[in-house]
Amino acid sequence: MEVLGAAASVIAVVELAAKVGSLCLEYSSAIRSAKSDIERLRKHTESLKITVDGARKLLQGPHGAQLETSQKLHKALADTYSQLDDVATKLEAKLYTGRTTKVMRRLGLRALKWPFESKEVDKIIANLQRDQDSFANALQIDQTTEVLDIHSKIDLATLPSVSGAAFDSHAEEHNARCHPGTRTELLRQIQEWANDPQAEGIFWLNGMAGTGKSTISRTVATSFAEDGLLGASFFFKRGEGDRGEAGLVFPTIARQLMYKIPALVPSIREALVDQDVPKKTLRDQFEKLILQPLGCIHRTTAIVIVIDALDECDKDEDVKTIIALLAQAKEVRSVRLRIFITSRPELPIRLGFRDVQGKYQGLTLHQIPEQVVEQDISTFLAYELARIKDEYNGQVPLGWPGEGDIRTLAQMAVPLFIFAATICRFVDDKGRSNPAKRLKKVLEYRTATRDSTLDKLDATYLPVLHQLTFGRTDQDKAEVLAEFQNVVGPIVLLAQPLSVRSIARLLDVEPEDVRALLNSLHSVLDIPSVDDAPVRLFHLSFRDFLVDPAKRTKNEFWIDEAKYHKMLAERCIQLMHQCLKQDICGLKVPGKLRSEINQQTINTHLSPAAQYACQYWVYHLKESKHKIEDNNFVHTFLTSNFLYWLEALSLLGRLSDGVLLIRELLYAAQVTSDFIEFLKDAEKFICSHGSIIERAPLQIYGSALLFSPTLSKVRNQQWEKKLSFIKSATGIKDHWDPHQQTLEGHSSYVRAVAFSPDGKTLASASDDWTIRLWDAATGIHQETFTGYSGPVRAVAFSPDGKTLASASSDETIRLWDAATGIHQETFTGHSGSIRAVAFSPDGKTLETNRGLLSIKSDSDFLQDQRPVDNTFFVDDEWITKSGKNLLWLPPDYRASCVSVYDHILALGHASGKVTLFQFVSP
């Protein structure tokens, strides 16, 4: 062995490991005794084979000769070969040679005996494991070397990630971990789950607000990181911008995985080079950035991904999709992928896990016995209060706080760990009275905790807030409460955290006034010592407590959500009106590309407060439930500043949000409002010119204005803002094109299109053997379904919109989960091409051009076809209704297939495009 090269030695070991595994299988099927030992040895040799085969691929690759560490594995390879050869020889001796063979001829396989004792098997596995670890370590080193090669480098700027989402980010640095001696049994269970090869791929830990889920997540992530098992983590946090955005979860996780496991870089790099995966659907992101790259490596230890507070993801529909995708974790065979998830037991999450029953292990925090939780909280309180006592060095009475007080506090807290953490911060507040007095105030609320969890939040937060008004006159108290609501109200409602300086700028108050108020709230708000760092809530339950409608008359600190969202919307608009202008960054070059503009230049001319205002003013307006009317503050702002706002969005890389925000405004506008016409025109302006505005922001005042129709409201109102070198233009069309938008992506003839029952999703089928799903409102591509061996001829949604049926010329019908794109079932045995498919009203039967098909059985065909009655029809070159021609279609717009929802027509074309038209009822 030692005279062979490393690659040849590896091949020899791979072949011998496969041989031992095969022999074990023969023994397993032939004898009843020693089943456990046989299976242990077989599994280990299979694991060894996978690891060594990974070394073989690397050594035989283009850089194999340069991989110094793997080339030096001769001794470990020789030892492994010798051990396997000895095992194989003994197994073969019993099977094929000597007296055993004669006895087996006479007595059959019953005479066969396993040649090793359990202790011998233990020793063999230990020796093999030692060498396997050497191979794995060498692989890791050399894979790192390989991916650092100039040909494998990756531009990480193309893989977006969320700053602050990882457990070890600066944003999470000072947040709590489990105190030593607490949660011991739970943490042990989680550790066992991660290390158990037979365990489910997901561990879902759920519990109500304040029960300590995020603290456990940080502790678990820290532990797995120390053990070398943590692959990535994502801590959702509502109200912190992109930390609530599902579309960035998988790119962020993939980026972390690359740093932890460099061998993933080539696969992820390939996904980024071949297609713009970060902008694709969640399913595409998960498969291309995580599943497929992990499937290309071999690793014997677990890779754990921690996802905390999934309930704080912004969109409920995204939550269910994420759960369905993560449930595929066990499909990766080459690595043991484990997903640890925490959340509140909200309905969308419960439904998501219901749909993947049998693929996860679950545990509910608030169902852990009260005495266990109380003991853990007591341990935490005793430690923290003892620390506080030491820091105050004699300023508290002897024996303080006393076992009785600790026991009372623990009973008040159960099951809310957030109570204990908040009260300890309150008692430790250096700016207030001594700890003993503050603890006494907390204990005054003991009776409030006996009724409900909601009252426990009273006991958690009211001691902190009442200090603001204690001892004040009625007039002073009213002023303090108004100041609290006008400052803290907006802070807890912000879409992402802002610094003290930016909060002051947004609210039009002095930074000193903001800081003076916040100085009394260190127990509930994470307030940095510098004015430029963001102010954060320690826990979302503080916001829940302040805005709870049930407490409107009971809590004097209550925040009226609608009122303060409207206030924030108005302040955002005022700030934008003051700050925004044409060519705000002073570029002076009309064709300057966004990619050529330094981020520092943008930050210099657009303050953090102004950036926030541009991105979130519509969000606050929507949450205020305020209806837009003609000539109100929204109408006035947009008609004078619309182009400036679009320029700012383009500079911030958020222009794609513009269409969605305009549509939110359309929803909020009064039905009879003339402003609606401006908004509709603004929507078409962005849709038509978005690609150039996104690339070159100043072209808003050039190409976008010039080539908008002469009767466009945006063009006419904003024409004076055109670039100075533009004088006039002729030959410009008067109106926008009648089609709403064109969807491009198929590479061949579009054969069928279909709307979902709610009209929100459009499916298209093509001769390129794919189905594509589109957001019917935005035209954004959502999913691509593949797997056919022929052109797809027809598509249809089930009545509930959850299932998509497709028919192909390969004589099959397939059912898909419309949310996740997961293939559910294939019906075969048809005697010809299927060109049409539709669901029955009850969703139990499929109608095809070859008859009716029961979804539960593919055996009964009935020759019975019923026409589908749509409002509009497309008959060759005409769009018709009730047999009358309504609109002639030029040759470029004639359809190969059509689908109708309400007054929206989707036309599929031979070019591979899909065109949408919207009409009013004639």
Automatic annotation (TrEMBL):
Keywords: Repeat, WD repeat. WD repeats lie at residues 743-784, 785-826. InterPro entries: NACHT_NTPase, NPHP3-like_N, P-loop_NTPase, WD40/YVTN_repeat-like_dom_sf, WD40_repeat_CS, WD40_repeat_dom_sf, WD40_rpt. The keyword Repeat applies. Residues 201-345 form the NACHT domain. The keyword Repeat applies. Pfam families: NPHP3_N (PF24883), WD40 (PF00400). PANTHER family: AMELOGENIN, FUNGAL STAND N-TERMINAL GOODBYE DOMAIN-CONTAINING PROTEIN-RELATED. This is NACHT domain-containing protein. It comes from Corynascus novoguineensis.
